[in-house]
Every structure is written in C-alpha cells, then in structure tokens.
C-alpha cells in the first residue's frame, strides 16, 4: 500500500534533486506510482499535477506528513531536503544517493536533528549492481551509512584533549576514536591512523567532512561499509541478531582464556529502527565473529588485510593491542589482495605481561621488534583447525617456523602456545586466537633490552638533581663505572673523577641549563664526556686548575659538551655533520675509517644509553679549551693558589702565606705553557 511518505520524498526529489530516483523513471513505474497515489490519497488531501506545487503547499504537506507519520510510529529520517541539488554530483557521491529509491515505500518522517551521511564515492560502485530483488538489502546497507543526532566534525571529534607530550597507551598515537550508531543499528568507529588518515571501520575517509547547513554533514568514503553483510544472507539470518562490537569479559575461573561477550542483540522487528534488545550471553572466543555475522564466503571477496582490520575494530577489547601494533608498523604491503592468509592473534594480556609498571623496558617500543613480531603471527593460506595434524609445520611471513601439536585430549597448541577452539573465517582467510605471543619470551626480551636500552624508561630519582634527570642518571652511570671492579687481565677503564668533580661544582647552573622537560615535553640530551687524561693534559703540572678557579669558564666549557637532543653514532655522527651544542658553540664531525672525531677529540666509546633520556660519548680531549683560552683564565686568576682540582668539595680555595709565591709561579708557568710543544695533539707533561 502506498505510504504518505512516498509523496513527501517524491516532492523533495522533484524540488531539489536531492534524491535521484533514476530506477523509477520508466513509464510502467510512473503508471504504478500514479495508480497508487490515486488509491491512497484523496483529492482533498493533495493534488499531484504535471507542474511543481507551490512552496507553501509543499511546506504544509511536509509538516502534515511528518506529524502524521511521527504519531503513527514511522522511522525518523534526516532532512535531506536541505542538501543542494548539485552537491552530490560535485562530491561524486550521486551514485550512492541514487539508491535511496528504496525508502519510497517506507513510513518515514523527517527530523530536525543533526545528521551525518557517510556517502561512498562513485569510484566504489556496488558489484554486482543491485536489482529490484535486492531492495531490502540495499535499504539496510543505506541505513548503516546514516547517523541521526550527530553532525560529525572530524578535526575536533577525533582530536585528543591530552597534552602533546602525553602518550596514550590505549590508542594509537594521540587521537581518540569516536563511536556512533547508524540508523541500521550498526556501530561506526571513526579514528585517525598514525599517518593522519581518517578511517571508519577500516574504510578510508576522503577529505574533510562537508557541512550541509544548518545541521547536516556529508562524509565521503573510499568504499561502502558492511559490504560483507550485504553480500551475505542478511535478511532473516542470525547475522541480524548481533551487534558488531563484542568485548572481552573477566575470566570465569577456568583454565581457558576469558570468554568473548557480544555487545547487544537486535530483535528482528526492530533492526531497521536501531532499537537495542537484550544483552547476549558470553560466547567462546573462537566463534564470536561467526555468531556475529557468519562471514559466509561469497563470489565478491575483500582483501584479507582489510577484512582483518575491520574485524579487529569490531572487538571492543581483548585484541586492541594487536590491532594497535599492527597499524603502527603498517605491514599491509606484505598481503596480496588475491591471496589467502591465516592470523594467529593473541589477547591483550599477552602484551601486558611485558609492560613495565612504572619504569623499565617495554619491548614494544622497539619498532623493528614489533614489526617482526606482527609478521610472525601470519601464515599464507587459509588454515582451518580441522585440517591441522599433529607435528604440522608452517612458515610465517617473518620467515620463522611454527609447529602444531595435539594433546591426547585433543587440545591444540602452536609452539607450545595454546590455540583456542574455533575458526573465525573471514574473506580470503581465517583467524585463530592463541593464548600468548609467538616467539616472545624472557630470553628474547632480555637480549632485546641489552641492545635497546635507549627506549627503556628511567626511574624518577630525587638525587643528585631532581630537576635534571639526565644529568642525575649520567652522574650515577659515570660514578658506577668509576668504582667498577677491573677483570683480571683487562686494562684499566677510563676514569671520570675530574668530570664528576666539575659537574658537581657546576650543578646549580647545569641543572637549570639542562632541565628534564620544556612545557611538559621531555627533553633528551647527548653528553660528550672527556676522560681524566683529557683534563690532565691541558696544562703543566703545579699550576692552578682553571676549572676550579674560574666558575664561569667551567660552566661554559661543560655546557658546550652537551647537546639538547639525543644523538646516535651511526645515524647522526656522519662525516661533515655540524652540531650545535647547548652553549651555542658548534662542533664538526669527521669520520675516517673506524675513527670518529668531534672537532679534534676522538670518540673512544659511543652510544652509552642513559635510559630513554639521552646518550653519552667518551672523548679523549676537552672541547673548546684551547691553550690560548687556558692562558687567559690563568692570567685572570693569577692571585689564586694552584690546586689542580684539590680544592674542597664546597669550592673554597686554599689561602695563606704561600699566595705571593704561587702568584710568581703562575706567571712563570704561563710563559712555559705558551711555548710547550704538543705531541700527537696532546701537551707534554714535564716531570
């Protein structure tokens, strides 16, 4: 029977062209429409002529129709009459809107609420093209592209309110996801990937949202959403009954991993309206997505990787870490669009066991390790559990071997990791859930930590200098090396007693010059630390220590041994590189074979990682301390007694009757210092 909404939508389509109905333009269709209209609408209610009705009459009809349908319980629908007629064509989404003829027989009333329409681009046509028999499926598909009650703003709704330095471990990057519900009752998850691309349920969003005043939004998509459901047996199947968002609940106390709980169920009669039904009971993890949608194979298949990402996005929790790291390393290029694959997916607690509580090493901060780990959870081919035999081996995409075993009781494991019962078949592949990460154990993590101490977070220390964590941890590291036992037969390691003494004397200034944070953002550093012999060789014996007698000189020299960013030897210290030091002087890197120099100083030990705070390099000379500058410092402080670093730790210098004699000694030694010859770049120390 013809509904009043048919006339309303027909009028809107004729008035603004917002709802193309190209499938209803044949003569037979027009005759059918005219016949139905004559049967359902009396002359007193509305008269349809070959000419457009006057605007006032149209408005009255719309208001009357809306009130009638709303009181009769019709479906609430966005006011698409406000969409300009040529906008859909300009956005290349008119093909999507041409499908809206399926609503012409529905009892709908327009709403003044905000709305968002997610319109697939014309470049993603429906294949195969729908026919008249596909009307119900098309109708459900379109409803799953309409959100009523919210006009999504991609820039603000997907942005984080956290400060820029804060790292959210629950999301990828600093963006928060947005979840909305469509008129079809399906959940849409909008998020921003690491590369800045906005996606909804794994489908890329093309450009920014287009505002439709006063309260509408059109978002253009690269492809249709929920096409797997469209190609499956949607009408009357169990896939209608389940929400697309399962979540992991607490363990029931058994030896098995926690069950998956489906979000909400829909009643058959209320799916179209998006009304929620009762909660669904817990389901086994291996079959949750089969219950959700059955995932029947069809002639039209989606690439495995796209399907996998969408499936993992459906899970409210439980596999979020796997998805986060999968998107972080972006190994999508390893998957062919036509080839089949199987994924072995561990749950979140498999990752959480390796996370440090407050500080320490997180192996998943090492990107190369994360990429390798992700690759080793995929194999080529659709591997079903019923086809696996005891002892069967497969090669992962990362090149490692996984071997299956079956216990006498029939429990399956892979590399001694439990495999949960049940296959989750997806387009061009299969998903199996496992009880732990593959190829990740304490030995692997310990060896990884030894090679990547640069990503290990540091404990917060209050001493020596709370405000400069890098300086404090560096002081502790050098002090530890200073007192480390010397293995038998080994040469003595470099001593840093003088550098430690000078840092301690200068710490009131250095701790302010080298803070841990700037506007709440952590600052990393590099320190080129001279060993003791580098200082000893700077001036003749029995003269004053210029680093003790002149505080400003000491501060300037040491500040110019720090860099306000972390440097790596192989990556940053390339031949010809120019580095700006913390004291604003510049140093030049030179490389000759295995020898690396910064100015004239040879780097004897590189990449001493001070947690994730910075790096230390050991050098054999003091930077920016020329003979001329040393002479100037000694001349300026000729009234000071020679101390050679033996002054008290409080910085006080000795004074007494020998002052006059020491002044003469300093003046005499200045002449000697100026004429001292150097050997191999080091001043000769006379006995």
TrEMBL record:
It comes from the Eukaryota. Transmembrane segments: none annotated. InterPro entries: Adhesion/Biosynth-related, FAS1_dom_sf, FAS1_domain. SUPFAM superfamilies: FAS1 domain (SSF82153). Coiled coil: none annotated. Residues 1-18 form the signal peptide. Keywords: Signal. Residues 84-225, 306-438, 483-623 form the FAS1 domain. This is FAS1 domain-containing protein. The lineage of its organism: Eukaryota, Metazoa, Ecdysozoa, Arthropoda, Crustacea.
